Amino acid sequence: MIEIKNLHKSYKMGSNSLHVLKGINFSVAEGELVAIMGSSGSGKSTLLNILGMLDVLDEGSYNLDGVPIVDLNETKAAQYRNKFLGFIFQSFNLINYKSAMENVALPLYYQKVARKEREEKSIKYLEQVGLKEWAGHLPSELSGGQKQRVAIARAMAAEPKVLLADEPTGALDSKTSYEVMDLIQKINDAGNTILIVTHEPDIADMCKRIVHLKDGVIVEDKKVDQVRASQYV
Amino acid sequence: MFNKDRWKEILEVLTTNWFRTVLTAFGVFWGILILIILLAAGKGLENGVKSDFGDSATNTMFVWSRNTTKAYKGLPKGRRFRFKLKDVAAIKESFPDLKFVSPRNQLGGFGGANNVVRGLNTGAYNVYGDYPETIQQDPMLMTSGRFINYSDINEKRKIAIIGEGVKRGLYSKGETVIGSYIKIQGVNFMVVGTYKKKNTNGEEGEKEIFVPFTAFSQAFNRANNVGWMAITANDGTSITSLKEDIVALLKEKRKVHPDDKRAVGYFDLYEEYNKIESLFGALKFIAYFVGVLVLLSGIIGVSNIMLIVVKERTKEIGIRRALGENPWSIKVQILMESLFLTLISGMAGIVFGALFVYGINTLLDANGPVDMFLNPSIGIGVVIVALIILIISGLLAGFIPANSAVKVKPIDALRSE
Ligand SMILES: Nc1ncnc2c1ncn2[C@@H]1O[C@H](COP(=O)(O)OP(=O)(O)OP(=O)(O)O)[C@@H](O)[C@H]1O
Ligand SMILES: [Mg+2]
């Protein structure tokens, strides 16, 4: 599903440049649930942003579902993001003047799906995350866990090939974190490919594979026995 | 592009901060309001001044004779001369493009001695010897009876047409005017008509008496002399282009030196009218200039606010782009917000301006006419021009903010707090 070869990325700041990713080789098959770990500043978010086509690589190659991701203009990148990827952020990033349902419907709107179908689909996904009754509420009326579940529903709405989550539980307490992980595991069980950046070992243990980043290279990449989150909920 | 979701979003964005939106809208509102009021005031002034011309045939010149200032063909300088009736015929013959050539003679004048008597009443009035065409060059409204006709001219009938002002001066209320006699410098004329002037300088204009040219000449011993002439050209020809030749012909007929600039006086109504036309053209230009400048500051205000809105929504724009919104769609969104705000406030300005002009008109109607100001108005043309200006400026105002909205990379937009 994802294939990365010899990926390099540096940030230029004035005269000196910061080499963040120093030759990453990495691939993810369909249906995997991967945790990316590493100390702060190790380049986890940078990697995820490149995978998400929000940022561009300096060197190396990136293939997503067999499509080479190279030299995209903004319009093309937006189209690919919409079609291939779903994002889940640490700070939820819901649009605060739109209701939960409208937020979930946004990716479908950008796909020019008709209004009625959009509404039906977003209700369906809100139901999956257990928030059907909250469809008409604004994000400001929801708790952190509820917001993240709306964000997950939104990421799922366009039926992407890969879900990318940058510290999805970073702003939540442990109980809520497990609820969110339970949801993510269920989505994964249904066959979706998911990448999660996290600091927390217990969250990482709920994935099927853990990748450790250090100083811009992968130092460890192992399969683990998945801990089910449902037992803590 | 213009779907329901788009409109919903525009309204959501503009209504999140009502106070700011209204303040911004006020700038554009004010600019258009001033533009509309200036244009309407200019139109009012134009209507006022042009109504002084009334329905007069503006393609008209007046010629009169003065003393010569050059000796010519054995005749001395300082000679007093008069046009003759045959000069009128000569002009008509030489210039087929003329519509009317009316010779006129005149008695009395402003502040002159009393020259008209009826019973015990007397008055000082202008008395003109005229041809029937006069009424087409200087329109009057006959309030009773009739104007001079050609059988009056041919039979030298001693009849008179008097203004409503003359009637008020010489007759008491309810008296029969038609058929009565008035004595002009000792000669009896029968009144056959009364008139009102359409022009607004009415009062003075209605203190005039018209009698047939031939009867006037006979009664007051003018022989074949002509005091002055009113010459009107056909619609397709401007009198201004003919006047030099007409004056030259008159000089030749009256044996005046061709270079004698003073001997023949004339007044070109058409040229004066055109001067006023171009004056109002300039006035209109100034109104647009000032109005658009004021509007410009409103537009800059809109642009400024849109920049702030874009800045505030950087994060949101980042999210939307991460979710796959096309950058072009974001541009269109910002442009339409700007356009919508500009158009709505501009239209409010147009409506308010129209109400204001309507109010002024009502006041003018209620309090009677004012000098040099009449019926200020804004035509549909002005409204269309104003709307076009608004559309262009709304797009201009949104242009920079729309570009800055998509210039930020989605990753940077997401990072901003
Ligand atoms: N836009 C940028 N410009 C300059 N430097 C950047 C930029 N983004 C990230 N960096 C730097 O790159 C390095 C890696 O950043 P990154 O965000 O990938 O770390 P991370 O592993 O996600 O850390 P954390 O766990 O704290 O989120 C950091 O040193 C950071 O300062
Ligand atoms: Mg990070």
Provide a concise account of the structure shown:
The complex is a heterodimer of chains A (233) and B (417). Chain A is α/β, with parallel strands linked by helices.
How would you characterize this protein structure?
The complex is a heterodimer of chains A (233) and B (417). Chain A has helices spanning 44-51, 74-84, 100-110, 115-128, 144-157, 174-189, 201-204; strands spanning 2-13, 16-28, 33-38, 59-64, 67-68, 85-88, 162-166, 193-197, 209-214, 217-223. Chain A is an alpha/beta fold and 233 residues long. Chain A has a single domain (2-232), classed as P-loop containing nucleotide triphosphate hydrolases (Rossmann fold). In chain A, a hairpin with a 2-residue loop joins strand 9 and strand 10. In chain A, helix 3 (100-110) packs across helix 4 (115-128), helix 3 runs parallel beside helix 5 (144-157) and helix 5 runs parallel beside helix 6 (174-189). The mean pLDDT of chain A is 91. In chain B, helix 1 (4-16) packs across helix 12, helix 2 runs antiparallel to helix 10 (269-312) and helix 10 (269-312) packs across helix 11. Chain B has two domains: 4-54 and 274-415, no CATH class; 60-270, no CATH class. Chain B has helices at 4-16, 18-53, 85-94, 134-137, 150-155, 164-170, 202-205, 213-219, 239-253, 269-312, 314-322, 327-367, 380-407, 410-415; strands at residues 60-65, 83-84, 98-107, 116-118, 121-123, 126-130, 140-145, 159-163, 181-184, 187-197, 208-212, 225-226, 228-233, 264-268. Chain A binds chain B through residues 49, 52, 54-55, 74-75, 78-79, 81-83, 87, 89, 93-95, 97, 106-107, 109-111, 115, 154, 158, and chain B through 4-5, 12-13, 16, 315-316, 319-329, 406, 409-411, 414. Bound molecules: adenosine-5'-triphosphate and magnesium ion.
